[in-house]
UniProtKB/TrEMBL annotation:
Molecular function in Gene Ontology: adenosine deaminase activity; metal ion binding
Principal EC category: hydrolase
PANTHER family the record matches: ADENOSINE DEAMINASE, ADENOSINE_AMP DEAMINASE
Name listed for the protein in its UniProt record: Adenosine deaminase-like protein
Domain annotation Adenosine deaminase: ranges: 8-354
SUPFAM superfamilies given in the database record: Metallo-dependent hydrolases
Cofactor: Zn(2+)
Species of the source: Glycine soja
E.C. numbers: 3.5.4.4
The keyword Glycoprotein is annotated on this UniProt entry: no
Length: 363
């Protein structure tokens, strides 16, 4: 496991609230129990349960949202999630989250996202680079990078690039989806680079989100879609026709979908543990990773929800190695290749190529 932890890694599919630490979730739930907002004894077992079906996962998300959706909790979770990824040598993180509105807490989609940014600023143990270089004042590093050269125990401090994707929840209306896209455009200078479509795949219609997704792409935002989490041939077809910049999962694909995917070369975010836990693939041996990898299709290993599925990106690489017989060299290359599909500018990509090249010499 040590090797997979020390290898530099790129995470392109991580949901903020799904990446919450178990300990934090339990602590926040207990505190709400003490205040009488929830009955802690009723929710404790839901949190601690390990194997959940896809529908149980979404029930857990509803609970997580009750427990986490106030500004200070969101700030705390963001800080911890970034620290956890950086700790296992994730050098670039695209973190996605659904901007939420909650009138009773005085929360708007904007204030929710400001709380996320506050969390990025609150990280102390590593340097977090989330402001795109083009937005940094000339000759001045951003406040966050002012100590980029500081040494920690004699070593150069770790640095993690973070970019944000705003998720549209499949329960949302066209107007709500459009509001999310408008907010993403306004917050671009804080490293918001794209839009994700996620949420319970059994809910909602593609046509509802299409106007907002189209608009996002026209405005130069990147778009990634949760695609093929359940069997829905028409929707998968329509999503592939849309030509998103990336897709996540691709589990319930039929022959026609594979052909279209491969000919369009859309990179796929693969989440092995998530797919197994939610029974979206029958066994690891039957996972489509193998076919796509052999076809040299662009792929990236990701966690999806490291908290909810009790995994880490290092663990996902370890599983790929032991399940598919891939060695350290092959998986190092797979990790490095993700630079080509990330939603970041060339300055970041060049910096990361150097990181990987120097790691290759040291590992
Ligand atoms: P949040 O957007 O930070 O609140 O992260 C949790 C949300 O991400 C969930 O409520 C879902 O909308 C979405 N999500 C997390 N995991 C999955 C998944 O496996 N499929 C689809 N949506 C997901
Ligand atoms: Zn996901």
């Amino acid at each position: 496991m040590d090797w997979w932890v020390s290898m530099p890694k790129i995470e392109l599919h991580a949901h903020l609230n799904g990446s919450i630490r178990d300990s934090t979730l339990l602590e926040l739930a207990r505190a709400l129990g003490d205040k009488g907002v929830i009955d802690f004894s009723q929710v404790e077992h839901v949190i601690l349960k390990n194997d959940r079906s896809l529908s149980e996962v979404f029930k857990l998300f509803d609970l997580i949202h009750v427990v986490t959706t106030d500004h200070s909790s969101i700030t705390r979770i963001t800080k911890e999630v970034v620290e956890d990824f950086a700790f296992e040598n994730v050098v670039y993180l695209e973190l996605r989250t659904t901007p939420k509105k909650n009138d009773s807490l005085g929360m708007s989609k904007r204030s929710y996202m400001e709380a996320v940014l506050e969390g990025l600023r609150a990280v102390r143990s590593v340097d977090v680079a989330f402001i795109p270089y083009s937005e940094e004042p000339r000759n001045l590093s951003s406040p966050l990078l002012s100590d980029a050269s500081e040494k920690c125990n004699g070593n150069t401090r770790k640095k993690i690039f973070v970019r944000l994707l705003f998720s549209i929840d499949r329960r949302e209306t066209t107007e709500a989806a459009m509001e999310t896209v408008m907010l993403a455009l306004e917050m671009r200078h804080f490293g918001v680079v794209g839009i994700d479509l996620s949420g319970n795949p059994a809910v909602g219609e593609w046509i509802t989100y299409l106007p907002a997704l189209k608009f996002a792409r026209e405005q130069g935002l990147y778009v990634t879609l949760h695609c093929g989490e359940v069997s829905n041939s028409n929707e998968i077809h329509n999503m592939l026709e849309f030509l998103p910049h990336r897709i996540g999962h691709a589990c319930f694909f039929e022959e026609e979908h594979w052909r279209r995917l491969k000919s369009s070369n859309i990179p796929v975010e693969i989440c092995l543990t998530s797919n197994l836990r939610t029974l979206s693939v029958p066994t690891i041996d039957a996972h489509h990773f193998v076919d796509l990898y052999n076809a040299k299709h662009p792929l990236v290993l990701c966690t999806d929800d490291s908290g909810v599925f009790s995994t880490s990106l290092s663990n996902e690489y370890k599983i790929a190695s032991s399940s598919f017989g891939l060695g350290q060299k092959e998986l190092f290359e797979l990790s490095k290749n993700a630079i080509e599909f990330m939603f970041a500018d060339n300055v970041v990509k060049e910096d990361l190529r150097k990181t990987f090249n120097s790691a290759a010499k040291n590992l």
